[in-house]
Specification:
This protein folds into five domains: 301 residues, TIM Barrel; 60 residues; 149 residues, Jelly Rolls (Sandwich), CATH 2.60.120; 132 residues, Jelly Rolls; 115 residues, Jelly Rolls. The chain has 15 helices and 44 strands. A hairpin with a 2-residue loop joins strand 13 and strand 14.
């Protein structure tokens, strides 16, 4: 790989940061154990930063880049669940290809020099359909999930053993020289035990014993399992784990899920967790003796196909993670955490081997000091949610912003404060793609013109494989999740003497459903829709309807939106229409629940595989200059060429109703651009101070929860790609767009009040910490790969005000600010600007603390 200097244009007068490149050959430990302080690898205690990246939520082409970005961000361990229902979709039939190539994923982490935590489960929750357990197991006679149930335990042990044997065959456990240093059995069961009665404790103990019998040569963990038996380590999953204590003094303090954001459900707001608060939580954890911390998620990715659980979990599983759904760095979150990791790693010797002492510095302020073997490191924290505090530590004054931790690797100088962000902010947007040059099919039209052909799905019964009962049946037990769709069809004879034909008072149809969504058709006409939501999957629907004298056909299309992924006895939670009645008849109400109902599983287009090349010719598609709009139950197909460029690509589905999308037979996922309430509560500014909850810093009130749907670049052929949609509600396909995701703007704000940049800290040969005297705050800007800084929109050395995208000059401003920054940065992929009077040639604010704010564009 070329160095920074080699990549930079020779004519570019950029300020370059030159790094010493050391080729480190990671030697995996053959012996992994632990003591009360940390994991021990080949006799050495380890302080480890971990990152959850789930292999099925991205594609193999993305894995090397995602893992490389994690490593660059200071990550030591890649954490992933194992997805049982992806690997054993049918009993005894195993699948480990494409997105489910677990061995390939682990080996990529190994090649990058990273460890792996393999969380087998095999129950995982994870907002993944059915919590990762195959739905076929629910229908094995006598099976009850996650309790002392013999059929469940038998199948759970069989799959666990299968995965362990696969890893052993590939020599991937650390005991074999591989990267896997940890493995997990079960998942967050401790909080569920009270719901499973007498079978809970024996099951948990059995799971631990079964795991240990696998003889993998590395420790097993059980997260949120408060009674995990020795030698299994119990770990913490929460927003904050500084107060967590293992259930035995012999076990280290481990945090297996630190949630840097939250998942989204269709119709909800977009949750965000501020980077200052994440850093506060991590710093507090290590301040209080933690030595292993994992971000869940570090890259969330995408719930492709029908893998989203919930129900109502969106196709996007972005999670507001440090690496976004499309694989781009989320700045400043990624960079702020990288600097946090660097600061904590400077303290590793003291944290792992030093003696700890706690000192009170005030009512909500404290210091934890680690000393020994010639090293000293201190963490000074202020847990006050409102007030900054000045504290005295070792006869020196330190300023602690509210809700922050200062890290002192030498017990004297602050290397990092969690509330002070000194890295760039990237403004990432979805940009329209000009498809003209790429797609010969779009000869005279722009990106707006995708030439659609259509096929109309029949309402109700469309095939011979139907059955009729006089009851309303459960949808999941009927479809066994082979499809999202189940038709409920009945008919009603209406006498022409009914009062509503003369008095104008329409009869009212009342429907109750166990979830998740439905469409209503009467006499082949679409009437309306209803759905539950992420808080309550059940719903009730009332509608005044028009009926005709004689026979009336009443048809429901009931739809699941991802199955339950957890909770007490989640495997018995149902879905589908549960009660139907009509009011307004001369004899009162009519109970239709006991009518004869005819059931049809799925869609005709699904049976005919209209989304595959092999099936697209099975029907006669309609061609028209303009495809039908706002028409329910319509299949759309088009031939497109690959969008130009290398930026990540998405489909803009804002104009559509609800449905599913495929590219070249690969299912992109469920789309549903349903909006959250404009009154749901989205603050104009997020206050990072104080404990975080998912609804604290939400955005996009009144906007669609998910508008854009990731289509991996590797799924495209250069030409002639088959794009297929099934729209079940009705929308306008002419407005569908391909868009690209790119960082178009960079911002940075640094101050003399910031701690010295970490590149000025170093460890000596004796492992003590030194701070070089030349330390100056430095603003670093870097454009994404393939672009460079094209313009400087704002630059001010002085006391600039505002935030990224809205910077303003303050009361003092260096008049040469823009010209100096332009000289250093224009035309460069990256640049560094030092905050100093010498650099800017004047002091606009003599005697005052100064800052530098810059806003730049990349192209």
């Amino acid at each position: 790989m070329a160095t920074v200097a080699q990549r930079a244009p020779l004519v570019c007068l950029c300020a370059l940061i030159i790094y010493a490149v050391v080729d480190l050959k990671w030697v995996y430990g053959a012996n992994v154990s632990y003591d009360h302080r940390s994991l021990i690898i080949d006799g050495q205690r380890k302080l480890l930063m971990s990152a959850s990246i789930h292999y099925p939520r991205s594609v193999p082409a993305m894995w090397p880049d995602l893992i490389a970005k994690a490593k660059e961000g200071g990550i030591d361990v890649i954490d992933t669940y194992v997805f049982w229902n992806g690997h054993e979709p049918k009993e005894g039939t195993y699948y480990f290809e494409d997105r489910f190539d677990l061995v390939k994923f682990v080996k990529i982490a190994q090649q990058a020099g990273l460890y792996v935590n393999l969380r087998i489960g095999p129950f995982i929750a994870a907002e993944w359909i059915f919590g990762g357990i195959p739905i076929w197991l629910h229908y094995v006679p006598g099976t009850v999930f996650r309790t002392n149930n013999e059929p469940f335990k038998r199948y759970m042990e069989k799959f666990t053993t299968y995965i362990v044997d696969l890893m052993k065959h590939e020599k991937l456990f650390a005991s074999q020289g591989g990267p896997i240093i940890l493995s997990q059995i079960e998942n967050e069961y401790g909080d569920m035990e009270s719901n499973y009665g007498e079978g809970a404790k024996p099951y948990a103990m059995w799971a631990a014993k079964m795991a240990l019998s696998q003889n993998i040569g590395v420790p097993w963990i059980m997260c949120q399992q408060y009674d995990a038996p020795d030698p299994v380590i119990n770990t913490c999953n929460q927003f904050y784990c500084d107060q967590f204590t293992p259930n035995s003094y012999s076990k280290p303090k481990m945090w297996t899920e630190n949630w840097p954001g939250w998942f989204k459900t269709f119709g909800s707001r977009n949750p965000h967790r501020p980077p200052e608060d994440i850093a506060f939580g991590v710093a507090r954890f290590f301040q209080k003796g933690g030595t292993y911390q994992n971000y869940y998620m570090y890259h969330g990715g995408t719930n492709f196909a029908r893998t989203a659980g919930g129900p109502f979990i969106t196709t996007s599983y972005d999670y507001d993670a440090p690496i976004d759904e499309f694989g781009l760095l989320r700045q400043p979150k990624w960079g702020h955490l990288k600097e946090l990791h660097e600061a904590i790693k400077l303290c590793d010797s003291a944290l792992l081997y030093g003696e700890e002492k706690n000192l009170s510095l005030g009512p909500l302020q404290e210091a934890n000091v680690y000393t020994g073997q010639g090293v000293c490191a201190a963490f000074l924290s202020n847990s006050d949610e409102e007030h900054d505090k000045d504290v005295i530590f070792q006869n020196k004054s330190y300023h602690l912003p509210a809700w922050s931790v200062s890290i002192l690797p030498d017990c004297k100088n602050v290397a990092f404060n969690t509330a002070k962000i000194g890295v760039q902010t990237s403004i990432v947007e979805m940009q329209s793609i000009d498809m003209m040059s790429a797609n010969s099919l779009l000869e005279e039209e722009s990106n707006a013109a995708i030439h659609w052909e259509t096929f109309k799905e029949k309402v109700g019964v469309w095939g011979n494989d139907v059955f009729t009962t006089n009851t309303l049946i459960d949808q999941i037990n009927t479809t066994k999740d082979t499809t999202d769709y189940l038709w409920y069809t009945t008919s009603l004879q209406v006498d022409e003497k009914e009062p509503f034909f003369s008095n104008g008072l329409l009869p009212v149809l009342i429907v109750e459903s166990r979830g998740h969504a439905m469409h209503l058709f009467i006499n082949n006409e679409f009437i309306g829709s209803a759905s539950g939501n992420g808080d309550d999957i059940t719903f009730k629907y009332e509608k005044a309807i028009h009926l005709r004298a004689g026979k009336n056909d009443i048809v429901f299309l009931s739809m699941t939106v991802g199955l339950q992924n957890g909770g007490p006895h989640y495997d018995f939670v149902g879905a589908g229409i549960s009660k139907v009645k009509l009011e307004g008849f001369r004899d009162g109400s009519i109970n239709l629940s006991t009518n004869d109902w005819t059931y049809q599983i799925g869609l005709k287009g699904e049976q005919l595989n209209l989304y595959l090349e092999s099936g697209v010719g099975n029907v006669q598609w309609e061609k028209a200059a303009s495809p039908p709009k706002n028409r329910a139950l319509t299949w759309y197909k088009a031939r497109i060429n690959a969008p130009p460029g290398n930026d990540p690509v998405a489909l803009d589905m804002l104009s559509m109703g609800k449905g599913q999308a495929w590219l070249n037979g690969r299912m992109i996922g469920r789309y549903w651009p349903i909006s959250s309430s404009p009154f749901a509560g989205c603050p104009s500014k997020c206050n990072y101070r104080g404990k975080f909850l998912p609804n604290k810093c939400s955005t996009d009130c009144g906007n669609p929860t998910q508008r854009w749907y990731h289509v991996p670049r590797s799924w495209f052929n250069p030409t002639d790609n088959l794009l297929v949609l099934f729209e079940d509600k009705g929308g306008d396909p002419t407005q569908i767009r391909f868009v690209k995701r790119e960082a178009i703007k960079l911002c940075g704000l640094i101050s003399e009040a910031h701690p010295p940049h970490l590149k000025y800290w170093r460890k000596t040969i004796t492992n003590s910490i030194e701070l070089e005297n030349t330390a100056r705050p430095t603003l670093n800007l870097q454009c994404p790969e393939g672009s460079q800084i094209s313009s400087i929109n704002f630059a001010s050395f002085g006391n600039p005000q505002g935030a990224c995208g809205a910077f303003e000059k303050g009361s003092c401003h260096g008049v040469q600010s823009s010209s100096i920054v332009q000289k250093d940065c224009i035309g460069c992929k990256s640049c560094s600007v030092t905050l100093s009077v010498e650099k800017f040639g004047e002091d606009p604010c003599p005697g005052a603390s100064k800052s530098l704010a810059v806003e730049a564009y990349c192209s």
